Every structure is written in structure tokens, then in C-alpha cells.
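Methods: example folding runs. The two proteins below were folded one after another, and each record is reproduced exactly as written to the output file, sequence line first and C-alpha cell line second.
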Amino acid sequence: MSDYENQMLTAVGEIRDLVRLLAEPAIAARDQKLRSELRRIVGKSATKAKAVRLMDGSRAQRTIHREASINEGNLSTLVKQLKAGKLLSGDGREPKLAIILPANFFETGTADD
């Protein structure tokens, strides 16, 4: 890939991030029920929150288990709960969260405004 293409790709990524930031209130309103269900499932567990953050469809459960330092059984249960709550897309082998979350979603621990 040429230097120009890399610059364009970087610029497009920055634009995407800005659009997401501007759209966050609308996304939060649309996904309010799903976000509430996600908070209920994850609770106050930092380990589960880290595992959920890693669920981008590019990692297998085994990789998430290692990177998040979460027990395999707990991860399996978490994935099942997320699937039951319609919070995952795909088959669950490489879990991908079905909703977009802001970077501080688990830090705030409050209802979405």
C-alpha cells in the first residue's frame, strides 16, 4: 500500500471516529435496552467488561480467555448470556458485540443519557 493510500485510510478512520462521537447520543437512545441488558449481564466485573471489549469478531473465545484473564467456563457462560440477550452477532466462536459502545461505557456504570 502506498504512502498516499495509508494517509487516506488514516483520514477515513479519523472521520469515522468523529462521526461515531457525534452520533453517540442517537446510538445510545436506539440501543438503550440492549445496553441496559449488557450492564446487567456484566455487572461490576472488570474481567467480564474486558472480555466484552475484546469481542470484535476477530478473536476466538480461547484468545479472549487468555487476553482478558477470564476463566474459560465464565467466558462460555458470558457468551451464552450475551447470545440469549441478542447482544452478539455470529455464532459465538469468534464473538462480536452487536452494538457499538463508547470507550467509557463500563467506567461510567450509569444509565445512558
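Second run, written to the same file directly after the first:
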Amino acid sequence: MASIKQRGNILWIKFYDRLEGKYKEFSTKIRATKEGRVEAKKLLKRFESNYDMREMFESKEKRIGIREGLKEFLESKVLRAKTVWLYEYAVNHLIEACGEKNVNEYKSSDNHKLMMLFDKKNFSENTKGIVTTHLYALFNFFKANNYIKEIAFKKVARKVKLPECYDDGDLAVILDYLKNHDRKKYYFILFLLFTGFRISTALEVDWKNIDFENGFIIAKNVKRDRDFFFPITDDVLWLLKEIGLQKEGKVFDYKIESLKSYGKLLKRMEIKGVISKHYTLHQLRKTFITKLLENGLAIHKVRALADHKDISTTLKYYAAVNVKKMGNEMNGKGIFRDIYRDNKRLLG
């Protein structure tokens, strides 16, 4: 028994292969419109009654070119523009290193060619990791849909970076400047600091989604296309009152492009020696999370407030903060100091 399913904007046919004992899928290349569904149903009937047609589809899919395969992959997903660009960036480097071929023609030797190209371009380990992670996901899609048997490319492990946060002194200088010269941006920076919201989330906050009676904000995780709840803390409540409470409309009417001036401002402040280094808007989120951990908030609560999909993200990037704090606490208590001193006197 076969059926039609939608992946992104494209209709696929899913069927059970009795010989291999598992379900398989292939793209009809038909868009998921009203007319497309009618056409896909006709194709499904032909497919169910004609085994030769199934073999024709499968053999055709196995010869799919890398660019056509990428197009099909992207059409089966709902991705942000930046993510689409990263997949295209990865495939362009694959083609530069190994040539443009059918997806089933890429072998393990091509992985070596790709690594050689990375070295030639002096790519960092993180850049290698980003490119290979996207290639692996793409070829995993090809494998899942029986275009290839094995994935030829391996993911390069990315180095875990400790969170880069705002220095308290630098942050005070930046806020003082904005308070006197750009009050609107001053409020936005404070909001990012008090909530730890991603920039895209902060820009989506609407007054009608702020429940003052029950004390929470219904925020949108644009990255994952889901909502989450954030408490209205005393700091957030004070800030919203400073902005001026309203019944509807966006709290901040910025567009992401208009926020580039903030980076230019910090660059000028760094050059003049007013602040110690350059910062980004996103580092306000890292500062928020780090401050929570430094002040002893349980990591599962930090995960919820940061709206991390998995607690492993919180652990991976921010647990080092707690480890450092515990080390400082141990040093402050001097638990083993007396024993160490006695041994030192004996050895001396």
C-alpha cells in the first residue's frame, strides 16, 4: 500500500518494499497545490498498479545530480534564508573540491579532496565543522531516500567556545552612552540583557502577548517556529513601564538591518579605548545566561529561560561557568590548605 505525503512544498510517494521489509519514499517532483494533489493521486494509482514504473522512478532518483538533489532537499524543508545559504555554500565547496557529479558518485576519497580544499583556503576547524555538518545532513537525506547507500563525508568536530560575555565595566559605559544619546536603542539593549532573548525573538514581542496579570510574556522562538513563556521580572516590568505601556503593536519597531549601527558604535568606542573590546548584540544573550549560572540558578531553569531545545546545549556551552565558580568557592574555603601546608613543611 502506497500513500502520498507532503514534505515542504513537494509531494512524495511512500510505499512498503516487501523485499527489503521497510518503508521507502521518492519525490514526485509535483508541488503541493490543489492541482498538484490531483496529479499526484493519478501518479499514485499508476505506481500501485505498475511495478516497472516504481523501478523507473528508483533508477532515476539514483542518478540525481548534486544541484538537483540540493534543490529537492531544500524544497522538502522549511528553512531560514541563512540556513539555505549555508547548504548552498557547502555544496559549492563540495563541487569546487570534487566536481559536479550525481549524488551516488561521491566516494570516501572525495572527503579527502574536500579536506585538502579546506586546508588550501585556511579554513578554521569551526568553518570546516559548519560545512561538513551541512553536507552530512544533505547526504543523510539522500541515504534516507535511497539515493545513496553510504554517506561519503564525515563531520569535522567543532571546537566548543566558552561564552564571550560583556565586561560589567564596558557594559556600564555602553548603557550610559546610549541612555544619553539614543534612548530607544538603550531600551532595546536592556531588554536583551534582562531577557536573554535572541534578537529575532525580541523584535517579535507584541504588547498583546504580554500578560501583566499573570506575569509572563508569550515569546516566539523564530528559529524553531514555536512559542515559549518568559516571566515578567521586576527588571523587565520596570523597563516596559519606562518604554510606555501600550495595548497593541510591537514593543520594538526595529528591523534587524537597522541595528547594524550598534556594531559600528561599539567599534568606534573600542578604537578610542572607551571599552576594552568589541561586542555583538548576541553576546547580551550569552551574558544573561552566564549571569544566571553565576548566581546559582539551577541549570534546568536556565535552559527553560534561554529556550534551549535540549539541556545539552546549556551544558555544552555554559557549564564551564559553573565549574569555574565551584573552583573559586573551593579556593575560598581552603579545604585542603592546612594539609598541604603540613606536607610542604615535612617535605621541606
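Comment on the second run: Confidence is low (pLDDT under 50) at residues 344-348.
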